[in-house]
Specification:
The structure is a homotetramer. By secondary structure, chain A is an alpha/beta fold. Chain A folds into 2 domains: 16-248, Type I PLP-dependent aspartate aminotransferase-like (Major domain) (Aspartate Aminotransferase, domain 2, 3-Layer(aba) Sandwich); 252-334, Aspartate Aminotransferase, domain 1. Chain A is built from 13 helices and 10 strands. Chain A has helices spanning 16-25, 37-50, 62-73, 87-90, 95-99, 117-125, 152-164, 176-181, 223-229, 238-248, 252-270, 290-298, 321-334, and strands at 55-59, 78-83, 104-108, 134-141, 168-173, 196-200, 210-214, 283-286, 304-305, 311-314. Chain A has a 7-stranded mixed β-sheet with strand order 1-7-6-5-4-2-3, sandwiched between helices. Chain A has a 3-stranded antiparallel β-sheet with strand order 8-10-9, with helices on one face. In chain A, a hairpin with a 5-residue loop joins strand 9 (304-305) and strand 10 (311-314). In chain A, helix 1 crosses helix 10, helix 2 (37-50) crosses helix 10 and helix 6 packs parallel to helix 7. Chain A is globular.
Chain lengths: 335, 335, 335, 335
């Protein structure tokens, strides 16, 4: 009997709050394509969470949310600067280039998933030449792919030079809840210079849904047509919006993320293998050789080898302390 | 208090069967990206319904399902033949061209949403010239945009000459349930020459989900990568698959569609305005002048003027006989 | 022995002036990608001809020039308004949609290739809805596909309402020389509100080359990267620029176009078939049944049936009076 | 007075043979879009040179030729394997992704511009996963970007495993003439498994023109429409074809390339800086610090720092022994 508890934070079911809100929204006739009251209420809650007067849309997938955002910030003969291990660079089958008609991705190095400021500045200093795709946007991720969390100040230091060149800024918040639970102030995002933010619903414990938050209102012009053309303006919008209501109206969004983060910490305390990156959110990345990983799989636990060669363990709202302890025990035996 | 009952068949909530299945699927950890058991079971049920050994995928939107299908059948310098009022031509913001990098759409005429065979043959007989996008695929819709239903024989007559030229065939089944409830045999589709079929979940009474059925297995190669790149391979695939289980396992799919069709017939019986197209599925299209439509809106009923100038009334699984009668009464007063 | 004299205005060779300039440019080493002195001089001459301080680029084909211009003015979920028989709509294999990632083309009616102002205004008045590609640009052609010529006032009347809505304007000048020779003032273009103008070299009697003139300098940002990515920034730019030098430095551009226009007038005088459109530039469009056209072909003269069903005869710089007279004689016999 | 002699092999003018053929083609009326006799003759000569019964087209730019070839071999959710410093990866502004709607490029390492076989095999052995763009084509370059030349056997060793997986193969022959002059047998290409070959005209000493050779005839279906849509099917095709006639009909293609290669050898003999890569074709890559390069520029000679940090000197048909000697002398003084 295979266990996917730690394979990813999208192997979990939806939280009770998200599901109840979806069930509650499932009544009566409504207008379509995001013009309904459920969608309006969810958007208000997102704005309230961010304390920002921004445009909010709900879409079906993080890949689409990110790719559409980058396509809005960048022309095909331009490029996006991102961490070389950012999800948009490594795990989305080239979606930014597909949605953005070949726009380029320039991967930047940096420890534990955070872009190195010097590397960014070097990229920003490259001269514009016609035979390269020069950057037009910066894409950041918080929490990062390696379970670390940027501070407000760290993000500002990266965003400021990009904005100074007139570039757009995208923040991939697939795990924004985990970042917030780790102390990242959501109401401070509006002052960072972010143009488009994706607030992850799926990994936070919802059925598939993501919120696209457009701080730069000029970018919002005809955004619904952009979404519709890309198959991301659902006729029955309430099913993408309702889970956000369930999660945002009483703090479940942060509460569940805090639990996921705590489970990662608990696992860290039990971990007999070397943990490579600081455990600041809901993931652990440990050094484990291949035979050991195979034995872990044989013991029924799925975990994946990640981009930097470590083995990744992800916790979610649904991760139980008991599961953590059982896994810890198993790992102890494998050591 | 505005009523959207008849504005579209996507204004209704999800059926109890669909929602219960979604709730039932919402437990435990599963593997991601469509590799889970819920998805496997739903795909089996779709195959059983069609009595076909085909590849099945579940995606978030009909626009994406159609556009990805056409992109799989057609290169950018080629075109799709479709009814001039087909959804892919008129209501998807050019999605086929976006997903298909500029592929062309050639609109063909025909009464009540059905492609005129002579017009199709004329299009098929056009010589290939380099300065035009020559056709490579035929897109059909059943039930049609005008609430009519193709017979098996009628579809065969359109498909045969297209296949004879080596072209691909796409069947948009956004309202396939309604066609089936009107007598269109679903198990006969596999012999029609259809390469890709979209089985509509949304309009049939599910939360947003559509099944893409790939009869031509060669087209399925790397289809998951195609979906992922397009933001249509959800990590939590069970939420797109589960509603199909709820609807297919005990016949709710057809049962609800039969109800919707019956409601359309009931409305037809009460309709004081001229009905322009045969009422074979779940929609009515009536001749109504603008002041009357405005008065209908003022009376609280939303209905839209459609492409051919008629006013459209759509019924769904959730349409009640009482609502039909109340609307009929209102219309009687407006006459 | 087939004769292509009147089949198109691109069946002619290059003019002596264009060829001599190309030969003259063919010496010594130069820097690449449009940074050479030949390109600089040609751009100056284009600016002088237009009396405009605009960015000028030279590209290989009219299709690419038009498609790149429209892609610069329009996002994929938006549309270009153009005459329904404009070259971009009918004869470029969907290039605007390819270069513009599926951008839409909305064909407008109008007599003799000129957009009907009422039809344009109706299109401009359509409400923005998410399920349609709403217009973002207007594309005009002068001389038109039917050999007619817009006046400055007529263009202004079409452009003004489009600009009032903030839309971009593209002017396809594949036959701008012929329009100019017919009295269209080139120095007045700069005040019309045109954002991007394509000055046709090929049909004016050059080897393949077109000038892209960008009046709105903001659109010129990174235009070389746009061109390079699209395969339209040639390393040996001088070969695209030189012919313009030959044609512009002493008035050959207009002189040859005036000759072409005069030949069309001469043919009109001899034409035994009904001429459908005013002969204002270098083309004639006549009403001729199919058997007659076949006999014309049998007599060795190529001419094509055009979009409106007429048979088109095009004159060029290389059309001789003798050829016109011989054709006229032949046509007389076929009548 | 700046000298561009060694800056690139596209800074030179066209050869007398190419230009004379262009002049000779510049007479009379012809049919358009590549259906003329000049184009037919040039295609025959290309086939004869390759001893291959292949489809041949002539296009305006190498970037377009390469990008269209890769787009023909690869779908958007797939990738092309190429040397990490191949022109398609580094110097074409992402053109493959633009023409190929986001298709991926996977850069492989290897000394002196040649793909390392082990690295290729490792890439070929990667499992297909939906979240990556899996390879569908291999792109090779001969002569390479570093002036080295693959042998027939070396290419076969790279192509065979790619073909074994069913992948397409593209050969960028921007400097095929130089490779041939270095002993690479052109008539042997047809047995290598190459699907599409680009025969460079521009760098071989022609005005802008490249030949696209399609060995796999199935790929040629509707290729003219593909070209037309991409702005690469010129109405006046003879101007792209004629230079090939001039260069191929009496061996000038190889003769001029042999001269360019000889000039590179001559420069190598005089070179006071360390030459990093074997000088097998027409380029030299030397180790030179920045101050020295600046002094070289100050002395009036343009040369560029290349991708591997060396300074590149390119020779062409027009490079004179005198120029080589003068440059050698200058370099000697800078040492």
């Amino acid at each position: 009997m295979a266990r996917y508890d730690f394979a990813s934070d999208n192997t979990a079911p939806a939280t009770p709050e998200a599901l109840q809100a979806l069930i509650a929204a499932n009544q009566g006739f409504t207008s379509g394509y995001g013009t309904d009251q459920v969608t309006a209420k969810a958007a208000d809650l997102v704005r309230a969470m961010l304390d920002a007067d921004a445009e909010v849309r709900f879409v079906a997938s993080g890949t689409a949310a990110n790719a559409l955002s980058l396509a809005a910030l960048c022309r095909p003969f331009e490029a996006v600067l991102a961490h070389e291990h950012a999800h948009v660079c490594t795990d989305e089958t080239g979606a930014p280039g597909y949605f953005g008609q070949g726009l380029g991705l320039v991967g930047l190095p940096g420890p534990s998933g955070k872009i190195d400021a010097a590397a960014l500045n070097e990229a920003l200093d490259q001269p514009d030449v016609s035979y390269h795709q020069s950057p037009a946007a910066l894409s950041l991720t918080n929490a990062t792919e390696y379970g670390t969390v940027y501070t407000h100040a760290a993000l500002k230091a990266l965003i400021q030079p990009a904005k100074a060149k007139g570039y757009g800024v995208h923040l991939d918040g697939a795990r924004l809840a985990n970042a917030a639970a780790a102390g990242f102030e959501l109401t401070a995002i509006k002052d960072l210079g972010v143009d488009i933010l994706v607030v992850g619903g799926t990994k936070a414990g919802m059925p598939p849904t993501e919120a696209v938050v457009i701080f730069d209102r000029q970018l919002a012009r005809r955004f619904d047509a952009r979404l519709k053309q890309a198959g991301q303006l659902p006729s029955k919008g309430r099913y993408y919006a309702a889970p956000f209501i369930g999660m945002l109206q009483d703090g479940a969004f942060l509460r569940h993320a805090a639990h996921a983060n705590a489970m990662a910490k608990r696992l860290e305390a039990l971990m007999p293998f070397k943990v490579r990156h600081p455990v600041e959110a809901n993931g652990l990345f440990v050094e484990m050789d291949e035979p050991t990983l195979q034995r872990l799989h044989a013991a029924g636990w799925f975990a994946y080898r990640f981009l930097d060669g470590t083995v990744r363990f992800m916790c979610s709202w649904a991760t139980t302390a008991e599961a953590v302890d059982t896994l810890g025990e198993t790992l102890g035996r494998l050591r």
